């Protein structure tokens, strides 16, 4: 059934297809990169104006202390609903995450019976409002390697409200 001529035709077909593929790749690169002797040292065809100076410093909003002074505990309780899936507010009752009862002012990694990741313990010694604000902004950036999968709270007011709510729980 298979003789040397059939095998030669099959091998020739693969080699021919591979050659067409390589020539197509070469042609695409030449068209895309411009080819020629000057390669990529020509001027840009057009520039998109964004209207802003790229070196401008972004204006910072109010500090966490200012936000905490005007924080709304009721709003913080509503925002905390995002956290309820993994955290409990009862003292010593851990869930997927540690108990958050008395977390403001507590040592990092001090919830009894909860195994913290090493990267979280290295972030800070005590959960101050400033550290909580940084962590709640984007946990994965604040403590790289943390097992907390929450994407963070984007609004500074929401973070301040949640911190004020958590601080109000333990008097």
What would a concise description of this structure say?
The protein has 7 helices and no strands. With 171 residues, it is mainly alpha-helical.
Strand content: under 5%
> Per the principal axes of the C-alpha atoms, what is the gross shape?
elongated
Helix fraction, binned, reads 40-55%
Quote the average pLDDT: 79
* Radius of gyration computed on alpha carbons: 29 Å
- How does the helix and strand content classify structurally? mainly alpha
Top CATH class of the domain at 64-169 = Mainly Alpha
Distance between the termini: 89 Å
For the secondary structure, the number of strands is: 0
What is the level-2 CATH architecture name of the domain at 64-169?
Orthogonal Bundle
The helix count comes to 7
Name of the CATH homologous superfamily of the domain at 64-169: Cytochrome c-like domain
CATH fold label of the domain at 64-169 = Cytochrome Bc1 Complex, Chain D, domain 2
SSE ordering? HHHHHHH
**What is the makeup of the main sheet?**
none
Low-pLDDT stretches: none
């Amino acid at each position: 059934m298979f003789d040397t001529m059939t095998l030669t035709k099959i091998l020739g077909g693969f080699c021919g297809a591979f050659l067409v593929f390589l020539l197509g790749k070469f042609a695409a690169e030449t068209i895309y990169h411009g080819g020629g002797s000057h390669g990529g040292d020509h001027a840009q065809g057009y520039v998109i104006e964004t209207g802003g100076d790229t070196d401008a410093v972004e204006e910072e909003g109010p500090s966490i202390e200012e936000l905490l002074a005007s924080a709304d505990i009721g709003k913080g309780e509503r925002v905390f609903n995002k956290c309820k899936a993994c955290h409990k507010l009862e003292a010593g009752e851990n869930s997927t995450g540690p108990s958050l009862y008395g977390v403001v002012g507590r040592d990092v990694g001090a919830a009894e019976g909860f195994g913290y990741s090493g990267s979280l313990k290295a972030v800070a010694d005590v959960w101050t409002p400033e550290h909580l604000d940084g962590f709640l902004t984007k946990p994965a950036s604040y403590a790289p390697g943390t097992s907390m999968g929450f994407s963070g709270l984007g609004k500074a007011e929401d973070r301040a409200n949640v911190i004020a709510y958590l601080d109000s729980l333990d008097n």
